[in-house]
Each structure stands twice: as structure tokens, then as C-alpha cells.
Amino acid sequence: MRKSRSPFPSRHTYFIDIYPSYFKLHVRWLRLVTRITYLSKLIGTPSLAACLKLELFRVYFQII
Q1: Mean per-residue pLDDT, 28-52
Q2: Spatial separation of the C-alpha atoms in residues 38 and 53, rounded to whole Å
Q3: Is the dihedral of CA 5, 8, 9, 14 positive or negative?
Q4: What pLDDT, on the 0 to 100 scale, is given for residue 19?
Q5: How high is the pLDDT of residue 1?
Q6: What is the pLDDT of residues 7-21, one digit of tens each?
Q7: How many other CB atoms are found less than 10 A from the CB of residue 18?
Q8: In sequence order, what are the beta bridge partners of 50?
Q9: What average pLDDT does the chain have?
Q10: How far apart, in Å, are the Cα atoms of 31 and each of 36, 37, 45?
């Protein structure tokens, strides 16, 4: 938590929290839709990755 300039005109003090964990790239590996009956067929099977859309959240709160 750090003190910063507030976008809100007021005489009260505002603080902004930015969560740095949302800067990380999150990748989810998706399972294949085909059914595999033999374990030997799993070798060389291409995988599919999906990157999740991330947003940066800023939380404004006021100390009176």
C-alpha cells in the first residue's frame, strides 16, 4: 500500500492498491477432446494452451 495522488478532489487521503499478481501470464493447458485408449498414443500428441485475459485491478479506499 502506497500513498499516491488521488484522482478524486477531496481533502481526505486516498490510497491505491495495485495487485502485482495480475501482471503474471496465466496459461491453462486444455485437455484434448479425442478419447485415447492406449497410453502409447499419448506420445507426440500436441497440446493446446489458452492464455487467460487478465486485468489490472486498482482499489481506491479513503482514510478519514
Answers
A1: 58
A2: 35
A3: negative
A4: 55
A5: 47
A6: 555 555 555 565 555
A7: 13
A8: 28
A9: 57
A10: 11, 15, 11
Read off the C-alpha cell for 49: 494452451
Residue whose C-alpha cell is 479513503: 62
**Whole-number Å distance between alpha carbons of 64 and 15:** 11
- Residues 54 and 23: their CA atoms lie apart, in Å, by 8
pLDDT of residue 63 exceeding 60, the answer is yes
**At which residue does the C-alpha cell 499419448 appear?**
42
Supply the DSSP symbol for 34: S
Which helix (DSSP H) or strand (DSSP E) does residue 15 occupy? strand 13-18
Q: pLDDT band at 43, cuts 50/70/90? A: low
- Assigned C-alpha cell, 26: 496465466
DSSP of the chain:
-EE---SS-SSSEEEEEE-GGGGSPPEEEEPPSS----GGGGTTPPPEEEEPP----EEEEEE-
